[in-house]
Amino acid sequence: MILSLSDTGPSYMAPFELEHLSGGQRKRRPLKPSPVDHRVEAVQPTGIPILDQVSGGGIPRPSSVALMGPIGSGKSALVRELVANFLRQGCQLLYYCIDDPADVVRLGLEDHHIAVTKIEEEGRLEFVDMFSLGAQKLAESLPKMDPSDILEETLRFQDLLAYGRSFAMKPTLGPKVIVMDSITPFFLLAEARRVYQYVQVMRFATQIARAVTISVLHTEVVDVNVENATANLADGVIEMRKRQGEVLLKGGTLKVLRIGRNPTPSRGYFYQITQQGIVFSNTPMF
């Protein structure tokens, strides 16, 4: 006996469903589209037109994004521009200052016309100044401790979690953003297995806070296995490369390698560092 799809009964629901009529008759009825697509993510606009265009409107929330590139490629400049835009959108922001002290970061945000002191007083911006903690530890320990021991004492991954726990659990009105600039010193001291664990924990924290987390990683100074683990585990990857042959940064190229559910890398876009911030070309590279 040959069965048609209609003979399989009402359990077969796509692309049609069966409607029972009087007399035992049945007919096919097209499925109605759901009015709500539950797969649509909430996105946090970056405020940078090219980034919002290639990412489908912004960074999905929650998600953990790795901003990767060589030292001097402009990652911190991009991060501060993003932070300024997020604060203008009313976000609550936790900024881990690891490569630079918080005072330097404050000045950088003020260059973007952000009233840093006022926003800190409002409780929408918090700094974790791990750079200054390291400098203080160095002053207290020299000449007794080896520099590598000072790094291990100061830059401990569990400290990142401890500082971020209260922020993640704190009820807020605006969306949450966590910035770590940069995670490189932590990963210089860790093997690839530990990096895998660290990145997973950061993703868990991001989910709990329903936040966007941006972690900066300097490539070409950490082990390639660390780079691969970070890139493969992050929800999104943005890559910046400075222009070949330039010692002092003037510009480079940016690619969105992955963001949200879109696995397709974007084409590269030229950027230029100016006193007003990063300026991107509107035309992608060929």
Q: Which key phrases capture this entry?
A:
9-stranded mixed sheet, alpha/beta, globular, two-stranded antiparallel sheet, 286 residues, 13 strands, Rossmann fold
Task: Describe what you observe in this structure.
Helix content is 36%, strand content 26%. The protein is of the alpha/beta class. It has helices at 49-54, 75-88, 102-110, 116-122, 130-141, 147-154, 157-169, 184-188, 192-209, 224-233, and strands at 16-20, 26-30, 42-44, 59-61, 63-69, 92-97, 125-129, 176-181, 211-218, 236-242, 251-258, 269-274, 277-280. The protein is built from ten helices and 13 strands. It has a domain at 42-240: Rossmann fold. The longest helix has 18 residues, at 192-209. The protein is globular and about 55 Å long. The strands form three sheets. The chain has a nine-stranded mixed sheet, sandwiched between helices. A two-stranded antiparallel sheet has the order 1-2. Helix 5 packs across helix 6 (147-154), helix 7 packs parallel to helix 9 and helix 9 packs parallel to helix 10 (224-233).
